[in-house]
Structures are given as C-alpha cells and as structure tokens.
Amino acid sequence: MNRSYYIAAATLAVALVASTSRATTVINIDFGLQGDHPGGVVSAPYTGAGAAFDPNGGTTWNPVIVVDNNAFQGAPGEFGFWTADVTKPNLLNSQGAATSIGVTLTADAANGTGAFGILQGSPNLGAVATNAVDLMRDYVIGFNVPQKVELTGFAPNTQVDLYLYGAGDTSNRDTLFTVVDANGSHSATTTGTITGDGNNPVTHTLTLGGDYVVLPAVVADGTGKITISYFHGAGSNEAPFNGLQAVFGVLPGDVNGDNLVNMADYQLIRSNFQATGATRALGDLTGPQGGNVGDGVVDFFDFAQWQQHFPSATGAFDVVPEPTGIALAAIAMGGVVQLRRRQRAAARA
C-alpha cells in the first residue's frame, strides 16, 4: 500500500476520535403570584424538568413573582391584577449558577395585567400537566392588548431557542406568543384544548401545542435583549403565561447531550433512523425549519446537521464513511504504526 493510503487512514482515525464541544445553557423561569388565599396554597416555586432539551439535567427554576390585589379568592383559586413591573437580574441557570441573564415582566395598569393560581385541592388542579404541576398551576395573564416580557443580558446576536408555556385551568385559554428579531417575526399559539376544566379535567403531561410552544433560533438584538409579546388567541379573552425556558449555546449535532459531536451521536441517529415521535436523545436534532429544535422524526435533516458539525482532521470529508466502530479505528491506527515502521527501517538503511 502506498503512503497516501496510510495518510488517509490516519486522518480517518483522527476524525473518529475527534469531537467538537460547546456548553449548553438553559435558563428556566416560573411566573407566579404572591398568593395569600385563606384556603391554602395557590402558587409554589417549580423544581424539575421542562420540555426543553437540557444536556446538563438541571432542575433549577427562577421564580418571578407578581403581587396581585386579591380581586378574587374562591374555590378555584386566587385572581388579581398587578400594576408594578417585576425585574429579576442575574438569573440562575438550570444547574443553579448565576448568569448575566435578567427578566422583566411589564405591568399595564390601563389595560390590565393579571395573575391566577389554582388552589390546592381544587378540581381545576387536575387540568394542568401532571409532570409540571407547580409550573402550570399559576400564571400571569394578558387581556386587552399584547403584553411583554423582556429577557436581557445575552451576548449581542445570540441565537436562543424559546420554550413558552401558556395554558390556563380551562380549555378556552389560548396564548399567541410573538418575537420580532433581525430575521423577522416568529410566532406560535397554544391551543388551550388540552386542559379541560375543573368539571371535566383532562389528565395529561406537558404537550407541545397545548401547554407550550417553541420559537426556535430567535436572535437577541445588538444590546442582548429579546422581547416576547403575549396576547390571547381568537378563541379566548385571556392569555396565560406560565413561564419559559431559554436555551442557548446548544451544540448542533450533539444527540446524547454530552456536549460533544462524535461517532456516538451518529450511531444514535443511525439506530433510530426514520423513527417518529422521537426526541433529541434518539437523534431528532432539527427539522425543515432549521435550528436546534426537532420535528419529531429522525431523518436526513438530523443526519445533515450531525455531518456538518462532525470534525475531520482535514475538512476534506464531504461524506463521513459509515463506521464499523472500534475495528475501523484500529485498522486506521494500524496503518499509522506500519508507516512509522517503514520510515524507521528506511532511516537505518
């Protein structure tokens, strides 16, 4: 075999063990109200997993609490209006470390910004997602005009995936979320039909489209700010906003969440290719829309993202060969050893 074969084999061996790394940051925010219902708890800080992909497995959430005027306290829960902006700087990431990210809930006394929390023991509590009760049981509310939440402290032009939670305690609560950035307008609406109500609650876990929506690849402006608008949909006069997850620094191509792009990720895509109802952990990295939010199917969009971000020693591989695991790497490394032996023999001669 000639020298070029060994060089190619060595290059492939390096590619097989190489990886690209980056740290993902997840900021979790849980909106709630102060809550002083005489009947018991209506709002509680949430700790746990959300719908967003978090390779760190973090469970820390930032409670952002409004002070309402206790306009109503009854069997379903507590409702009131709040009239003062709430700002919380230096939010914790999902692992509990302080960051530069901050959030501001903007009050609108003229048009009304409200809050509601479901009373412990109320039948209405059965209408919220069972795997995130304390996230979904309480929320701020927009009424007559679009209201806003501002996220600040990102590096300018940071790309952020937003998971926005907007479900009330009855099925006639829809929330239209909109963000306008340098690439245009991003919007999506929660349907509200997943929850049922106190008389006929629908038992369910967090559901895309019902409890939350995703706005992928939103870009922070030149000052590092993202403004989220929330407004009621066509079938509702209230727009609940339970909380959000902001995910940035996601490493494209990383399937298993180890913050590396390598052959282990390829094997997961290969093993689950054409699977439907898939999660990121199975290889659903992206979809036709691009970005780092999957479409529920493991397909060529996912493979293409992995291939684009898988490192090679020369950058010359347009198609990464199908791996045969350790055996292929061993063959390649064997070629390197044989080349070195021939070089040493030639030097002695």
UniProtKB/TrEMBL annotation:
Superkingdom, natural source: Bacteria
Alphabetically ordered keywords of this record: Signal
GO biological process, alphabetically ordered: polysaccharide catabolic process
InterPro entries: Dockerin_dom_sf (IPR036439)
Zinc is among the record's keywords: no
Signal peptide location: 1-23
Gene3D superfamilies: Dockerin domain (1.10.1330.10)
Name the record gives this protein: PEP-CTERM protein-sorting domain-containing protein
Native source species: Lacipirellula parvula
Taxonomic lineage: Bacteria, Pseudomonadati, Planctomycetota, Planctomycetia, Pirellulales
